[in-house]
Protein backbone atom coordinates (compact mmCIF):
# COMPACT_ATOMS: atom_id res chain seq x y z
CA UNK A 1 0.00 0.00 0.00
CA UNK A 2 1.05 3.54 -0.60
CA UNK A 3 0.55 6.51 1.64
CA UNK A 4 -2.87 7.09 0.21
CA UNK A 5 -3.99 3.63 1.22
CA UNK A 6 -4.05 2.11 -2.30
CA UNK A 7 -2.75 -1.23 -3.23
CA UNK A 8 0.20 -1.01 -5.66
CA UNK A 9 1.21 -3.91 -7.93
CA UNK A 10 4.69 -4.12 -9.42
CA UNK A 11 5.32 -5.91 -12.69
CA UNK A 12 7.12 -9.24 -12.59
CA UNK A 13 6.70 -9.30 -8.82
CA UNK A 14 9.56 -6.84 -8.27
CA UNK A 15 9.66 -4.54 -5.29
CA UNK A 16 10.30 -0.84 -5.41
CA UNK A 17 13.82 -1.49 -4.34
CA UNK A 18 14.61 -3.12 -7.61
CA UNK A 19 13.91 0.08 -9.50
CA UNK A 20 17.00 2.16 -9.79
CA UNK A 21 16.67 5.74 -10.73
CA UNK A 22 20.32 6.02 -11.78
CA UNK A 23 20.13 3.18 -14.34
CA UNK A 24 22.23 3.65 -17.48
CA UNK A 25 19.33 2.71 -19.70
CA UNK A 26 17.88 6.17 -19.51
CA UNK A 27 14.76 7.83 -18.52
CA UNK A 28 12.39 5.81 -20.64
CA UNK A 29 13.42 2.52 -18.99
CA UNK A 30 12.94 4.03 -15.49
CA UNK A 31 9.50 5.10 -16.35
CA UNK A 32 8.64 1.80 -17.90
CA UNK A 33 9.68 -0.04 -14.72
CA UNK A 34 7.36 2.00 -12.47
CA UNK A 35 4.15 0.33 -11.32
CA UNK A 36 0.93 0.88 -13.20
CA UNK A 37 -1.75 2.64 -11.14
CA UNK A 38 -5.06 1.04 -10.75
CA UNK A 39 -8.08 2.60 -12.28
CA UNK A 40 -8.89 4.18 -8.94
CA UNK A 41 -6.30 6.91 -9.56
CA UNK A 42 -7.22 10.45 -10.59
CA UNK A 43 -7.67 11.65 -14.10
CA UNK A 44 -4.34 13.47 -14.05
CA UNK A 45 -2.61 10.36 -12.95
CA UNK A 46 -4.30 8.42 -15.67
CA UNK A 47 -3.13 10.87 -18.29
CA UNK A 48 0.41 10.63 -17.01
CA UNK A 49 0.29 6.86 -17.01
CA UNK A 50 -1.08 6.75 -20.52
CA UNK A 51 1.68 9.06 -21.73
CA UNK A 52 4.28 6.96 -20.02
CA UNK A 53 2.82 3.79 -21.51
CA UNK A 54 2.82 5.25 -25.00
CA UNK A 55 6.41 6.41 -24.66
CA UNK A 56 7.40 3.00 -23.32
CA UNK A 57 5.82 1.26 -26.30
CA UNK A 58 7.63 3.59 -28.71
CA UNK A 59 10.91 2.83 -26.98
CA UNK A 60 10.39 -0.91 -27.28
CA UNK A 61 9.53 -0.56 -30.98
CA UNK A 62 12.75 1.39 -31.56
CA UNK A 63 14.74 -1.32 -29.77
CA UNK A 64 13.12 -3.97 -31.93
CA UNK A 65 13.93 -2.06 -35.14
CA UNK A 66 17.50 -1.07 -34.14
CA UNK A 67 19.29 -3.92 -32.35
CA UNK A 68 21.57 -3.13 -29.48
CA UNK A 69 24.84 -3.61 -31.41
CA UNK A 70 27.75 -1.29 -31.96
CA UNK A 71 28.46 0.40 -35.30
CA UNK A 72 31.35 -1.92 -36.22
CA UNK A 73 29.32 -5.08 -35.84
CA UNK A 74 26.53 -3.47 -37.86
CA UNK A 75 28.84 -2.53 -40.74
CA UNK A 76 30.38 -6.02 -40.68
CA UNK A 77 27.00 -7.62 -40.84
CA UNK A 78 25.97 -5.34 -43.70
CA UNK A 79 29.19 -6.16 -45.54
CA UNK A 80 28.63 -9.85 -45.03
CA UNK A 81 25.05 -9.43 -46.23
CA UNK A 82 26.20 -7.52 -49.36
CA UNK A 83 28.93 -10.03 -50.14
CA UNK A 84 26.50 -12.86 -49.70
CA UNK A 85 24.03 -11.11 -52.02
CA UNK A 86 26.77 -10.49 -54.61
CA UNK A 87 27.99 -14.07 -54.38
CA UNK A 88 24.45 -15.31 -54.71
CA UNK A 89 23.88 -13.09 -57.74
CA UNK A 90 27.16 -14.31 -59.28
CA UNK A 91 26.22 -17.88 -58.61
CA UNK A 92 22.86 -17.26 -60.21
CA UNK A 93 24.50 -15.67 -63.24
CA UNK A 94 27.01 -18.52 -63.47
CA UNK A 95 24.19 -20.98 -63.32
CA UNK A 96 22.39 -19.06 -66.05
CA UNK A 97 25.56 -18.87 -68.18
CA UNK A 98 26.69 -22.38 -67.61
CA UNK A 99 23.31 -23.92 -68.03
CA UNK A 100 23.50 -23.89 -71.87
CA UNK A 101 27.09 -25.18 -71.82
CA UNK A 102 25.86 -28.66 -71.43
CA UNK A 103 24.82 -28.62 -75.10
CA UNK A 104 27.70 -26.42 -76.41
CA UNK A 105 30.41 -29.14 -76.56
CA UNK A 106 28.13 -31.26 -78.70
CA UNK A 107 27.37 -28.39 -81.09
CA UNK A 108 31.07 -27.44 -81.21
CA UNK A 109 32.07 -30.98 -82.16
CA UNK A 110 29.48 -31.02 -84.92
CA UNK A 111 30.71 -27.63 -86.18
CA UNK A 112 34.34 -28.78 -86.17
CA UNK A 113 33.40 -31.97 -87.99
CA UNK A 114 31.59 -29.98 -90.70
CA UNK A 115 34.57 -27.67 -91.11
CA UNK A 116 36.97 -30.62 -91.42
CA UNK A 117 34.67 -32.23 -93.96
CA UNK A 118 34.58 -29.05 -96.07
CA UNK A 119 38.36 -28.70 -95.78
CA UNK A 120 38.87 -32.31 -96.86
CA UNK A 121 36.60 -31.88 -99.87
CA UNK A 122 38.47 -28.72 -100.89
CA UNK A 123 41.89 -30.38 -100.57
CA UNK A 124 40.66 -33.38 -102.52
CA UNK A 125 39.35 -31.18 -105.33
CA UNK A 126 42.61 -29.25 -105.56
CA UNK A 127 44.68 -32.44 -105.53
CA UNK A 128 42.52 -33.98 -108.23
CA UNK A 129 42.88 -30.91 -110.43
CA UNK A 130 46.66 -30.88 -110.01
CA UNK A 131 46.99 -34.59 -110.75
CA UNK A 132 44.78 -34.37 -113.81
CA UNK A 133 46.79 -31.42 -115.17
CA UNK A 134 50.18 -33.03 -114.47
CA UNK A 135 51.32 -35.43 -117.16
CA UNK A 136 54.87 -36.73 -116.60
CA UNK A 137 54.96 -38.19 -120.09
CA UNK A 138 54.78 -34.71 -121.59
CA UNK A 139 57.71 -33.19 -119.69
CA UNK A 140 59.74 -31.06 -122.11
CA UNK A 141 63.35 -31.21 -123.24
CA UNK A 142 63.34 -27.42 -123.45
CA UNK A 143 61.06 -24.55 -122.49
CA UNK A 144 60.05 -23.93 -126.08
CA UNK A 145 59.42 -27.66 -126.47
CA UNK A 146 56.95 -27.60 -123.58
CA UNK A 147 55.03 -24.82 -125.32
CA UNK A 148 55.07 -26.83 -128.52
CA UNK A 149 53.64 -29.93 -126.88
CA UNK A 150 50.79 -28.00 -125.25
CA UNK A 151 49.94 -26.18 -128.46
CA UNK A 152 50.15 -29.37 -130.51
CA UNK A 153 47.65 -31.13 -128.26
CA UNK A 154 45.34 -28.12 -128.20
CA UNK A 155 45.37 -27.44 -131.94
CA UNK A 156 45.07 -31.11 -132.82
CA UNK A 157 41.72 -31.28 -131.05
CA UNK A 158 40.23 -28.33 -132.95
CA UNK A 159 39.29 -27.76 -136.59
CA UNK A 160 42.83 -27.25 -137.85
CA UNK A 161 45.23 -28.86 -140.34
CA UNK A 162 45.95 -32.38 -139.17
CA UNK A 163 49.42 -33.11 -137.85
CA UNK A 164 51.39 -36.24 -138.56
CA UNK A 165 49.74 -39.44 -137.38
CA UNK A 166 52.82 -41.48 -136.58
CA UNK A 167 52.95 -45.27 -136.68
CA UNK A 168 55.91 -47.31 -135.43
CA UNK A 169 59.49 -46.03 -135.10
CA UNK A 170 61.99 -47.61 -137.46
CA UNK A 171 64.14 -49.47 -134.93
CA UNK A 172 67.10 -50.60 -137.10
CA UNK A 173 67.46 -47.17 -138.71
CA UNK A 174 67.18 -45.44 -135.34
CA UNK A 175 69.99 -47.58 -133.93
CA UNK A 176 72.29 -46.76 -136.85
CA UNK A 177 71.66 -43.02 -136.63
CA UNK A 178 72.13 -43.01 -132.86
CA UNK A 179 75.47 -44.77 -133.23
CA UNK A 180 76.52 -42.24 -135.86
CA UNK A 181 75.53 -39.22 -133.75
CA UNK A 182 77.43 -40.64 -130.77
CA UNK A 183 80.66 -40.20 -132.75
CA UNK A 184 80.15 -36.41 -132.65
CA UNK A 185 79.84 -35.61 -128.93
CA UNK A 186 80.46 -31.89 -129.48
CA UNK A 187 77.29 -31.65 -131.59
CA UNK A 188 73.65 -31.64 -130.54
CA UNK A 189 71.61 -33.17 -133.36
CA UNK A 190 67.84 -33.05 -133.82
CA UNK A 191 66.67 -35.56 -136.42
CA UNK A 192 63.20 -36.41 -137.73
CA UNK A 193 62.41 -38.54 -140.79
CA UNK A 194 59.04 -40.04 -141.68
CA UNK A 195 57.87 -42.15 -144.61
CA UNK A 196 54.68 -40.62 -145.91
CA UNK A 197 52.99 -43.82 -147.10
CA UNK A 198 53.02 -45.73 -143.80
CA UNK A 199 54.06 -43.03 -141.26
CA UNK A 200 56.96 -45.06 -139.87
CA UNK A 201 59.55 -42.66 -138.52
CA UNK A 202 62.94 -41.86 -137.01
CA UNK A 203 63.02 -39.38 -134.13
CA UNK A 204 66.02 -38.04 -132.22
CA UNK A 205 65.28 -34.90 -130.19
CA UNK A 206 62.48 -34.14 -132.62
CA UNK A 207 60.53 -31.86 -130.28
CA UNK A 208 63.56 -29.90 -129.06
CA UNK A 209 63.70 -26.21 -129.98
CA UNK A 210 66.62 -25.14 -132.16
CA UNK A 211 67.61 -21.83 -133.68
CA UNK A 212 65.73 -21.72 -136.95
CA UNK A 213 68.17 -19.68 -139.06
CA UNK A 214 66.83 -19.66 -142.65
CA UNK A 215 64.59 -22.70 -142.17
CA UNK A 216 62.08 -20.16 -140.74
CA UNK A 217 61.55 -19.10 -144.37
CA UNK A 218 59.56 -22.29 -145.10
CA UNK A 219 56.53 -21.38 -142.91
CA UNK A 220 56.79 -17.80 -144.21
CA UNK A 221 56.58 -19.19 -147.76
CA UNK A 222 53.45 -21.18 -146.87
CA UNK A 223 51.80 -18.09 -145.34
CA UNK A 224 52.60 -16.15 -148.51
CA UNK A 225 50.82 -18.66 -150.74
CA UNK A 226 47.88 -18.80 -148.33
CA UNK A 227 47.35 -15.09 -148.93
CA UNK A 228 47.74 -15.62 -152.66
CA UNK A 229 44.99 -18.27 -152.55
CA UNK A 230 42.75 -15.89 -150.60
CA UNK A 231 43.34 -12.99 -153.00
CA UNK A 232 45.14 -10.86 -150.42
CA UNK A 233 48.37 -10.89 -152.42
CA UNK A 234 48.86 -10.88 -156.18
CA UNK A 235 51.98 -12.52 -157.56
CA UNK A 236 52.61 -9.59 -159.91
CA UNK A 237 52.09 -6.81 -157.37
CA UNK A 238 55.09 -4.60 -156.72
CA UNK A 239 56.87 -4.53 -153.38
CA UNK A 240 59.18 -1.67 -152.45
CA UNK A 241 62.47 -2.39 -150.71
CA UNK A 242 62.75 0.07 -147.83
CA UNK A 243 65.94 0.99 -146.07
CA UNK A 244 64.95 -0.62 -142.76
CA UNK A 245 64.29 -3.92 -144.55
CA UNK A 246 67.80 -4.27 -145.96
CA UNK A 247 69.77 -7.00 -144.20
CA UNK A 248 73.23 -8.48 -144.52
CA UNK A 249 74.15 -12.12 -144.82
CA UNK A 250 72.93 -14.19 -147.73
CA UNK A 251 71.28 -12.69 -150.80
CA UNK A 252 72.07 -9.92 -153.29
CA UNK A 253 69.15 -7.53 -152.79
CA UNK A 254 71.09 -5.82 -150.01
CA UNK A 255 73.35 -4.24 -152.63
CA UNK A 256 70.46 -2.41 -154.31
CA UNK A 257 69.39 1.10 -153.42
CA UNK A 258 66.37 1.58 -151.16
CA UNK A 259 63.20 2.20 -153.09
CA UNK A 260 63.82 -0.48 -155.70
CA UNK A 261 60.71 -2.45 -156.59
CA UNK A 262 60.26 -6.18 -157.07
CA UNK A 263 57.23 -8.30 -157.86
CA UNK A 264 55.88 -10.39 -155.01
CA UNK A 265 56.74 -13.63 -156.82
CA UNK A 266 60.30 -12.51 -157.57
CA UNK A 267 60.78 -11.48 -153.96
CA UNK A 268 59.53 -14.77 -152.53
CA UNK A 269 61.67 -16.78 -154.98
CA UNK A 270 64.78 -14.91 -153.87
CA UNK A 271 63.80 -15.61 -150.24
CA UNK A 272 64.04 -19.36 -150.86
CA UNK A 273 66.36 -20.00 -153.79
CA UNK A 274 69.24 -17.76 -152.70
CA UNK A 275 67.98 -17.39 -149.10
CA UNK A 276 67.91 -13.60 -149.43
CA UNK A 277 67.40 -12.02 -146.00
CA UNK A 278 66.29 -8.65 -147.38
CA UNK A 279 63.60 -10.37 -149.46
CA UNK A 280 62.50 -12.25 -146.33
CA UNK A 281 62.05 -9.04 -144.34
CA UNK A 282 60.01 -7.57 -147.20
CA UNK A 283 57.71 -10.61 -147.28
CA UNK A 284 57.31 -10.55 -143.48
CA UNK A 285 56.23 -6.91 -143.65
CA UNK A 286 53.80 -7.64 -146.49
CA UNK A 287 52.20 -10.46 -144.46
CA UNK A 288 51.51 -8.21 -141.45
CA UNK A 289 54.66 -8.53 -139.36
CA UNK A 290 56.13 -11.16 -137.01
CA UNK A 291 53.25 -11.27 -134.53
CA UNK A 292 50.66 -11.92 -137.22
CA UNK A 293 52.80 -14.70 -138.64
CA UNK A 294 53.40 -16.24 -135.22
CA UNK A 295 49.66 -16.44 -134.65
CA UNK A 296 49.27 -18.15 -138.00
CA UNK A 297 52.02 -20.65 -137.21
CA UNK A 298 50.26 -21.37 -133.95
CA UNK A 299 46.99 -22.06 -135.75
CA UNK A 300 48.79 -24.67 -137.83
CA UNK A 301 49.96 -26.51 -134.73
CA UNK A 302 53.57 -25.28 -134.87
CA UNK A 303 54.06 -24.50 -131.20
CA UNK A 304 57.85 -24.02 -131.27
CA UNK A 305 58.12 -22.03 -134.51
CA UNK A 306 58.45 -18.34 -133.58
CA UNK A 307 59.83 -15.21 -135.28
CA UNK A 308 61.36 -12.90 -132.68
CA UNK A 309 63.72 -10.78 -134.76
CA UNK A 310 64.15 -9.84 -138.42
CA UNK A 311 66.64 -11.69 -140.56
CA UNK A 312 69.53 -12.54 -140.52
CA UNK A 313 69.04 -13.21 -136.75
CA UNK A 314 72.65 -14.23 -136.21
CA UNK A 315 71.96 -14.65 -132.47
CA UNK A 316 69.51 -17.46 -133.22
CA UNK A 317 66.48 -16.06 -131.38
CA UNK A 318 64.00 -17.32 -133.99
CA UNK A 319 63.17 -20.93 -133.20
CA UNK A 320 61.61 -24.08 -134.59
CA UNK A 321 61.95 -27.85 -134.11
CA UNK A 322 62.47 -30.88 -136.39
CA UNK A 323 58.95 -32.11 -135.57
CA UNK A 324 57.39 -28.70 -136.38
CA UNK A 325 59.09 -28.57 -139.78
CA UNK A 326 58.18 -32.19 -140.55
CA UNK A 327 54.53 -31.51 -139.69
CA UNK A 328 54.57 -28.45 -141.94
CA UNK A 329 56.02 -30.40 -144.87
CA UNK A 330 53.39 -33.11 -144.40
CA UNK A 331 50.61 -30.51 -144.54
CA UNK A 332 52.15 -29.00 -147.67
CA UNK A 333 52.30 -32.43 -149.30
CA UNK A 334 48.63 -33.13 -148.54
CA UNK A 335 47.52 -29.69 -149.70
CA UNK A 336 46.00 -28.93 -146.28
CA UNK A 337 47.17 -25.33 -145.98
CA UNK A 338 47.24 -24.18 -149.60
CA UNK A 339 45.64 -25.16 -152.89
CA UNK A 340 47.17 -27.85 -155.09
CA UNK A 341 48.26 -25.20 -157.61
CA UNK A 342 50.04 -23.17 -154.92
CA UNK A 343 51.51 -26.35 -153.45
CA UNK A 344 53.07 -27.28 -156.78
CA UNK A 345 54.45 -23.77 -157.24
CA UNK A 346 55.82 -23.78 -153.69
CA UNK A 347 57.58 -27.13 -154.11
CA UNK A 348 58.97 -25.97 -157.45
CA UNK A 349 60.53 -22.96 -155.73
CA UNK A 350 62.03 -25.15 -153.01
CA UNK A 351 63.48 -27.52 -155.61
CA UNK A 352 65.47 -24.56 -156.96
CA UNK A 353 67.40 -24.03 -153.69
CA UNK A 354 71.00 -23.37 -154.69
CA UNK A 355 72.68 -24.79 -151.58
CA UNK A 356 72.94 -28.55 -152.18
CA UNK A 357 75.59 -29.25 -149.54
CA UNK A 358 73.48 -30.89 -146.82
CA UNK A 359 70.59 -33.36 -147.35
CA UNK A 360 71.09 -33.60 -151.13
CA UNK A 361 74.66 -34.86 -150.59
CA UNK A 362 73.32 -38.08 -149.11
CA UNK A 363 70.90 -38.84 -151.97
CA UNK A 364 71.30 -40.85 -155.13
CA UNK A 365 71.34 -39.22 -158.55
CA UNK A 366 67.79 -40.29 -159.32
CA UNK A 367 66.33 -38.83 -156.13
CA UNK A 368 64.49 -35.54 -156.09
CA UNK A 369 64.34 -33.07 -153.18
CA UNK A 370 62.45 -29.85 -152.44
CA UNK A 371 64.22 -28.32 -149.44
CA UNK A 372 65.45 -25.27 -147.56
CA UNK A 373 68.69 -24.92 -145.64
CA UNK A 374 69.54 -22.85 -142.57
CA UNK A 375 73.02 -21.72 -141.61
CA UNK A 376 74.27 -19.49 -138.80
CA UNK A 377 77.35 -19.86 -136.67
CA UNK A 378 75.63 -21.86 -133.92
CA UNK A 379 73.27 -24.01 -136.03
CA UNK A 380 73.19 -25.82 -139.34
CA UNK A 381 70.06 -27.47 -140.72
CA UNK A 382 68.07 -28.65 -143.71
CA UNK A 383 64.42 -29.62 -144.24
CA UNK A 384 63.08 -31.31 -147.35
CA UNK A 385 60.59 -33.56 -149.13
CA UNK A 386 62.42 -36.41 -150.90
CA UNK A 387 61.23 -38.68 -153.71
CA UNK A 388 63.07 -42.00 -154.02
CA UNK A 389 63.44 -43.93 -157.34
CA UNK A 390 61.50 -46.90 -155.94
CA UNK A 391 58.43 -44.67 -155.58
CA UNK A 392 58.68 -43.91 -151.87
CA UNK A 393 58.41 -40.38 -150.53
CA UNK A 394 59.68 -39.24 -147.16
CA UNK A 395 60.20 -36.05 -145.18
CA UNK A 396 63.60 -35.31 -143.68
CA UNK A 397 64.72 -32.71 -141.13
CA UNK A 398 68.15 -32.37 -139.56
CA UNK A 399 69.14 -29.54 -137.22
CA UNK A 400 72.55 -29.51 -135.54
CA UNK A 401 73.60 -27.16 -132.77
CA UNK A 402 77.35 -26.76 -132.97
CA UNK A 403 80.38 -24.80 -131.80
CA UNK A 404 80.72 -21.70 -133.92
CA UNK A 405 80.91 -22.73 -137.60
CA UNK A 406 82.13 -26.24 -136.75
CA UNK A 407 82.39 -28.04 -140.14
CA UNK A 408 81.64 -31.38 -138.50
CA UNK A 409 77.96 -30.42 -138.45
CA UNK A 410 77.82 -30.51 -142.25
CA UNK A 411 79.55 -33.88 -142.28
CA UNK A 412 77.08 -35.32 -139.79
CA UNK A 413 74.04 -34.12 -141.76
CA UNK A 414 75.38 -35.62 -144.97
CA UNK A 415 76.00 -39.00 -143.31
CA UNK A 416 72.57 -39.08 -141.67
CA UNK A 417 70.96 -38.30 -145.03
CA UNK A 418 72.88 -41.14 -146.67
CA UNK A 419 71.86 -43.70 -144.04
CA UNK A 420 68.19 -42.77 -144.31
CA UNK A 421 68.20 -42.72 -148.11
CA UNK A 422 69.80 -46.16 -148.29
CA UNK A 423 67.15 -47.53 -145.95
CA UNK A 424 64.19 -46.09 -147.87
CA UNK A 425 65.68 -46.90 -151.29
CA UNK A 426 65.90 -50.62 -150.65
CA UNK A 427 64.26 -52.66 -153.41
CA UNK A 428 60.70 -53.51 -152.59
CA UNK A 429 60.11 -57.24 -152.18
CA UNK A 430 57.85 -58.52 -154.95
CA UNK A 431 55.79 -61.59 -154.05
CA UNK A 432 56.49 -64.63 -156.23
CA UNK A 433 53.75 -65.66 -158.66
CA UNK A 434 53.20 -69.44 -158.83
CA UNK A 435 51.86 -70.86 -162.09
CA UNK A 436 48.91 -73.14 -161.38
CA UNK A 437 47.48 -75.27 -164.24
CA UNK A 438 44.14 -74.09 -165.55
CA UNK A 439 41.31 -76.64 -165.34
CA UNK A 440 40.23 -78.44 -168.53
CA UNK A 441 36.78 -77.10 -169.39
CA UNK A 442 35.75 -80.20 -171.33
CA UNK A 443 36.73 -82.51 -168.49
CA UNK A 444 34.78 -80.45 -165.99
CA UNK A 445 31.72 -80.45 -168.22
CA UNK A 446 31.81 -84.22 -168.64
CA UNK A 447 32.03 -84.66 -164.86
CA UNK A 448 28.96 -82.47 -164.40
CA UNK A 449 26.88 -84.43 -166.84
Describe this structure in words.
- This protein is α+β, with helices and mostly antiparallel strands and 449 residues long.
- It has two domains: 1-94, no CATH class; 145-424, DD-peptidase/beta-lactamase superfamily (Beta-lactamase), CATH 3.40.710.
- It contains 14 helices and nine strands.
- A five-stranded antiparallel beta sheet has the order 2-1-9-8-7, sandwiched between helices. A two-stranded antiparallel ribbon has the order 3-6. Strands 4-5 form a two-stranded antiparallel ribbon.
- Helix 1 packs across helix 2, helix 6 (171-181) runs antiparallel to helix 13 (408-424) and helix 8 (264-273) crosses helix 9 (277-286).
**Helix residue percentage:** 40-55%
CATH topology group of the largest domain: Beta-lactamase
Strand content: 5-15%
Instruction: Note poorly predicted spans.
Output: 1-5, 7-41, 65-103, 131-159, 443-449
From the coordinates shown, what is the CATH architecture of the largest domain? 3-Layer(aba) Sandwich
Backbone shape = elongated
- Write out the strand line-up for the largest beta sheet, numbering strands in chain order: 2-1-9-8-7
Q: What is the CATH level 1 assignment of the largest domain?
A: Alpha Beta
Amino acid sequence: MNKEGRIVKFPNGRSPKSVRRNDNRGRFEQLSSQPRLLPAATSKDNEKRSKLARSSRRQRRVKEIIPTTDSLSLSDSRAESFSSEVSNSHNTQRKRKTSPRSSKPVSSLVLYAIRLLILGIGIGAIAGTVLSAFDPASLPLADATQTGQKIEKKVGSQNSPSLLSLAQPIAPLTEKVQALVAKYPQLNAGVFFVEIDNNTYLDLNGITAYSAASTIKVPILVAFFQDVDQGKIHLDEMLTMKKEMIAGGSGNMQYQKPGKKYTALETVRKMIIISDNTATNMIIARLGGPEALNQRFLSWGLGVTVIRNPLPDLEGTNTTSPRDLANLMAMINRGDLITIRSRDRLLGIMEGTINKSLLPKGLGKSANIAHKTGDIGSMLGDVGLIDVPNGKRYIGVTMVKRPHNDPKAKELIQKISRLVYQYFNQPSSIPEITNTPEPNVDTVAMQIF
